[in-house]
Specification:
- The protein has 167 residues and is α+β, with helices and mostly antiparallel strands.
- It has helices at 36-50, 145-148, 152-164, and strands at residues 23-25, 32-34, 81-84, 90-93, 98-99, 108-115, 122-129, 140-143.
- The strands form 3 sheets. A 4-stranded antiparallel sheet has the order 5-8-6-7.
- A hairpin with a 6-residue loop joins strand 1 (23-25) and strand 2 (32-34).
- It is globular.
């Protein structure tokens, strides 16, 4: 029997092209097989819908000895936590979990730990928006910072979202 050659290439699920930029996307689990342009359109649209519009976290220079200060909210000045999302965008989240009943559904996130391939060692923490299955009222969720921001506009938005929530 002769050897068979693997001629399978990844094909973008959106535009049906193949090439070196087509690969599996998503950090937590396989989301899709897309090329770079299609992935950027998809990820940017999802980031806008979910509010994941924080800038990417800057990797510190190992030779830099200046003190590191965590990012702060430009509206209220509070310290925020910056996390990557499953779709390679960034989101500002509050510092602590709250019960789901105290957070509007559009601001509920969970933190998932990513382990190394074939390993139990955690390598990254990823923010995942809670959708589909509603958590129990007492379940802890990590709110987006906008939901707990003390800026008057953010407080008004949060109150409107809580009022629009079905009972």
């Amino acid at each position: 029997m002769g050897a068979t050659e693997d001629t399978s290439q990844n094909v973008c699920q959106s535009c049906r092209t193949s090439g070196p930029t087509v690969r599996e996307r998503g950090r937590v689990s396989l989301m899709a097989v897309l090329c770079d342009p299609c992935w950027n359109v998809y990820a940017n649209q999802l980031a806008i819908e979910e509010g994941a519009t924080a800038p990417p976290q800057v990797a510190p220079d190992p030779d830099d000895v200046t003190p590191y200060e965590p990012p702060t909210c430009r509206d209220c000045g509070a310290a925020v936590r910056q996390y990557p999302t499953n779709y390679e965008r960034w989101v500002y989240l509050a510092g602590e979990d709250l019960p789901a009943k105290d957070v509007a559904p559009c601001h509920r996130w969970r933190l998932e730990t990513i382990h190394g391939r074939h390993s139990s060692i955690p390598v990254e923490i990823v923010a995942v928006r809670i959708r589909g299955i509603e958590p129990l009222p007492s379940d802890p969720v990590r709110p987006a910072h906008r939901a707990v921001c003390l800026n008057p506009e953010a407080v008004q938005e949060a109150e409107q979202e809580r009022a629009a929530e079905p009972e």
